[in-house]
Amino acid sequence: MLENDTVHYLNWEDLRRALDYDIEQERSFSYKGLTKDNSSS
21, 29 in Cβ contact below 8 A? Predict the structure, then answer.
């Protein structure tokens, strides 16, 4: 299933801090003025 890739696990406290950080970054980002041309997809 993993085709020889490695899986890294975090303890729940580190995972929670990482998620909190990512969510705060998303909240503080302004999408105002962006167009589809600005997206990476």
Answer: no
Q: CA–CA separation, 32 vs 11, rounded Å?
A: 36
Mean of pLDDT over the chain: 87
Using CA atoms, how far apart are residues 37 and 8, in angstroms rounded to an integer? Answer: 34
Is the pLDDT higher at 39 or at 8?
8
Please give the torsion angle defined by the CA atoms of residues 17, 21, 22 and 24, in that order, rounded to the nearest 10 degrees. 140
φ, ψ (nearest 5 deg) of residue 36: -60, -25
Q: Does the pLDDT value for residue 6 go beyond 90?
A: no
Residue recorded with tokens 């909190």: 20
